[in-house]
Design a protein that fits this description.
Largest sheet: 8 strands, mixed
Number of helices: 12
Strand content: 15-25%
Shape: globular
Radius of gyration: 22 Å
Mean pLDDT: 92
Order of helices and strands: EHEHEHEHEHEHEEEHEHEHEHEEEHEEH
Oligomer: single chain
């Protein structure tokens, strides 16, 4: 599959400031043999204006022309477009798809013959790392989570004062050391805070230790190899985890929760009663907060609430959008790596990197968890 025209969409999700391609990389896309179309105003909220895209060689155009001409559509989120009228068979759409949240739209894309690639579905292979926008955006979110929490605290994170009167540093607990959690560990450490992490996955535990943070072992925590094993371990040992976290979290003024098995609704690990027992003035950021909830009981994305005696709970939502400049540049490099791979791959379904990233292809839904959701919904409706 070779892209001849790449279209960069303007985001329509409220509060979204990122853009899928920055002007600095337009010429790199051109060297792959592609023409770049950019929807007018697409980069404005990330500091990239239409004139910058034109100077880099892109064509700035309206949404209708872009949807009609582009062979590959790039977006942070899937576009708010009618698949049956505004998308065409054979068109490629690449974005942070999160297909489990939109299974019926996925089915429509497949029926329309649109090939959808999830930049949040890159497999755990070294060759896939350059395409992994889910990871790059999670790292930005982890960084922002610590800064937002630190701004809400009434204390400075590092030890502070004079040699004869130092204040104690703020201890930080990070639950889950995937891409977002590991970046939160690193950021808090760089700000001078002592950090402990709860993490059962072996590779992530090694990364935490390499950053100089401590590893907090809970009752029921068993070392596992990957996300699937993590999900099974949580299913079996969640009561022990919940009890262990309840005892541990109250000792930390700043907690970042980022443990979410891939493709699963985040498990509730911190109940309201636990949060209410944290010290007054403590801050808890839930990076897993989404429409289905998060690891903190009752959390909602993009909301800040107080629990108990002045404990601040922040449902993160799309934190990467708050650092739109850095996040957009990171995403653009992921998109460029995708376009390069598409340009040199004849059959994406057979490619070890692109195959697992295909949500739909050749009229079929290829993403396994979404297929399961659709199958169960069809059976519940009594359809054949």
């Amino acid at each position: 599959m070779t892209a001849t025209t790449v279209g960069v969409l303007r985001e329509t999700v409220p509060g979204e400031r990122r853009v899928a391609l920055v002007p600095d990389l337009v010429r790199a896309v051109g060297r792959l043999g592609a023409t770049v179309l950019v929807e007018s105003g697409a980069g404005a909220r990330a500091g990239h204006h239409d004139a910058g895209y034109r100077a880099a060689g892109a064509v700035v155009t309206g949404r209708g022309e872009l949807l009609g001409r582009a062979d590959v559509l790039l977006g942070i989120h899937p576009p708010n477009a009618d698949p049956t009228r505004e998308l065409r068979p054979g068109q490629v759409l690449a974005a942070l798809v999160r297909p489990e949240r939109i299974p019926y739209l996925v089915r429509i894309w497949a029926d329309r013959g649109v090939t959808v690639i999830g930049l949040d579905l890159a497999p755990d292979l070294p060759a896939a790392y350059p395409l992994d926008a889910g990871a790059s955006q999670a790292r930005v979110a982890g960084y922002r989570a610590v800064l937002i929490a630190a701004a809400r605290l009434e204390r400075c994170l590092p030890p502070w004062g004079t040699p004869d009167g130092l204040f104690d540093p703020v201890r930080v607990l990070v639950v889950g050391a995937g891409h977002a959690g590991l970046q939160a560990v690193d950021t808090a450490r760089r700000l001078g805070a002592p950090v402990d992490a709860v993490e059962p996955r072996l590779r992530e535990r090694t990364a935490v230790a390499a950053l100089g943070a401590g590893l907090l072992d809970l009752p029921g925590l068993r070392t596992v190899g990957d996300g699937r094993e993590l999900a099974r371990s949580l299913d079996r040992h969640r009561p022990a985890w919940v009890a262990g976290l309840a005892a541990a979290a109250v000792r930390y003024p700043l907690v970042v929760s980022a443990l979410a098995p891939p493709g699963r609704t985040p498990p509730v690990l911190l109940h309201t009663a636990t949060v209410a027992r944290m010290r007054p003035g403590s801050v808890l950021v839930d990076l897993t907060a989404g429409p289905e909830g998060g690891t903190v009981e009752g959390v909602l994305p993009d909301t800040t609430t107080e629990v108990g005696d002045g404990v601040t709970v922040i449902g993160a939502g799309e934190l990467a959008a708050q650092a739109a400049g850095t996040a957009s540049r990171a995403f653009a490099h992921n998109a460029l790596a995708l376009l390069d791979r598409l340009a040199h791959t004849g059959a994406p379904a057979q490619d070890p990197v692109l195959g697992p990233m295909l949500v739909t292809d050749r009229g079929a839904v290829r993403h396994g968890p979404t297929v399961g959701l659709l199958t169960r919904a069809t059976a519940a409706a009594g359809l054949p």
